[in-house]
Amino acid sequence: MNLRQKTISGAKWSAIATIVIIGLGLIQMTVLARIIDNHQFGLLTVSLVIIALADTISDFGIANSIIQRKTIGHLS
């Protein structure tokens, strides 16, 4: 398997994982919306938005700044 095939395979698995995570989150929110009352659900969603925003700000630019090698070569 060459680098191109590995890259395509990794991208496919990443896309599948993202779709599954979004789907499970949607199911989770639907179930919670039916179980808890409106006020509690509103507090939950506001809390989740704040947590997501804090997570985004805390990781801002860190992933892009990690560099392992200057050049990309084939591994043995």
Strand residue percentage: under 5%
Radius of gyration: 19 Å
**SSE series:** HHH
Structure classification: mainly alpha
Q: Note the overall shape.
A: elongated
Number of alpha- plus pi-helical segments: 3
- Residue stretches low in confidence (pLDDT < 50, at least 5 long) are none
Subcellular location: Cell membrane
Transmembrane segments: 12-35, 41-62
Membrane topology: Multi-pass membrane protein
GO cellular component, one term: plasma membrane
What does this structure look like?
By secondary structure, this protein is mostly helical. It has one domain (3-63). Helix content is 76%, strand content 0%. The protein is built from three helices and no strands. The longest helix has 33 residues, at 3-35. The two termini are 12 Å apart. The mean pLDDT is 87.
Give a short summary of the structure.
The protein is mostly helical and 76 residues long.
Question: What are the SSEs and their pairings?
Answer:
Elements: H1 3-35, H2 38-58, H3 62-65
Features:
single chain, 0% strand, 3 helices, transmembrane
